[in-house]
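Researcher: I'd like a structural prediction for the single chain below. Treat it as a standalone chain; there are no partners to consider.
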Amino acid sequence: PLLGGDSTQVRVRFAPTARGSFSDGLLVNLSDGSQQQVALSGKGVRPEASLPARLDFGRVAVGSTGELNLVVTNLGDDTLRVLSVLSDKPGTFSVTATLPLVVAPSAAQGLGVRFSPQAVGKDSSELTLSTNAGLPQRVRVVGTGEDVAVSDVVIRLVPAEFGSVKVGEKKTARLVALNRSQRSVTIDCDV
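Model: Treating it as a single chain, here is the predicted structure.
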């Protein structure tokens, strides 16, 4: 019994199973036969991760590393946390971000991903992201390992010709090399 002048508390729990606004009423029956209605309302919130289906690195020279941002968007109304990212080829495709990555509602964050090709040719992997939004999310990452081709390194002499030089004298020119690839190249000259 609740004596005159006393008060008591009853816990009422709200456990939404979906996003959105909910309202209902709680009917309280009193021993004197009267009833009182108490209005209840709440909003179910949760994060919702949105990722591209594919991330393409294009061509990256073997022995070097390409880096792209995987954009993680939170379409939900609660904070999204990327807890872990696993690659089925961790030596070739890896993540550079510090985890957990926190993404506010209706916001996006970049997650650094690296491609370090081990061989010439096409390669791919699947990144699996575990979040607080439910089931793991998957992103396919692809890239092509390429060798440094001769056409990627341009070498020229400046000036282009020595011209006439008197016997016993010398004239100097510069050898200029431009490496248009993403890979280091060693230059060795033989005369």
